[in-house]
Design goal:
This protein is α+β, with helices and mostly antiparallel strands. It is built from 8 helices and 10 strands. The strands form 3 sheets. The chain has a 4-stranded antiparallel beta sheet, sandwiched between helices. A hairpin with a 2-residue loop joins strand 8 and strand 9. It is globular. The model has no long low-confidence stretch (mean pLDDT about 90).
Length: about 180
């Protein structure tokens, strides 16, 4: 058995309906996944399963989600070791310690290209930073501006399939899989 992290792209089903984490957990358990745990109400799963291809887990989770909730949602899955590597690769450790909600990573299904990261960087304000690390895109958001152009620019059409999590969530998921 191996431990995995699964991230949902969105947990909003439309018309003010959100996925309840207990329902998501039950869906994952229905697939035979073991020791299923959730973290906060933003679509984060940690579970154990037989070692398999990541793409197979993503497809199984997406199919089950659509059957259970009536809508397709992309899942991005990483093995525990890869998740710990992602967390250890945080290029903004000082800023993360000060304000973990100002640092985020767009976890990509397929590695983002340098061109996509550069295009995102072009949308950054003067006090924001964008870095490509092992195919994922790390962002340090402005403390001065409550809304950033980076959020709108980091979409599926421009970047590919991925989903963003702030440092607080990344760190807590790393703690969950590191046990």
């Amino acid at each position: 058995m191996q431990t995995y992290v699964a991230l949902l792209y969105s947990i909003v089903l439309g018309e003010r309906r959100r996925v309840v984490m207990s329902d998501l957990k039950a869906m994952a358990e229905g697939l035979g996944l073991k020791n299923v745990r959730t973290l906060v109400a933003t679509g984060n799963l940690v579970f154990e399963a037989r070692t398999t291809r990541i793409s197979d887990l993503e497809r199984r989770l997406e199919k089950a989600f659509e059957e259970t909730f009536g809508r397709h949602v992309d899942f991005i899955v990483r093995g525990a070791e890869d998740w710990l590597k992602l967390a250890a690769g945080n290029p903004f450790p000082g800023e993360s310690a000060e304000a973990g909600d100002q640092v985020a990573v767009r976890v990509m299904r397929k590695p983002a290209s340098a061109v996509a990261a550069a295009a995102l960087h072009a949308c950054a304000a003067e006090d924001e930073k964008v870095l490509l690390v092992d195919g994922d895109i790390w962002v340090l958001f402005s403390r001065e501006r409550p809304s950033s152009r980076l959020l709108a620019a980091a979409n599926h059409k421009r970047m590919g399939i991925g989903t963003s999590r702030n440092w607080n969530t990344v760190r807590r998921l790393a703690e969950m899989v590191g046990k």
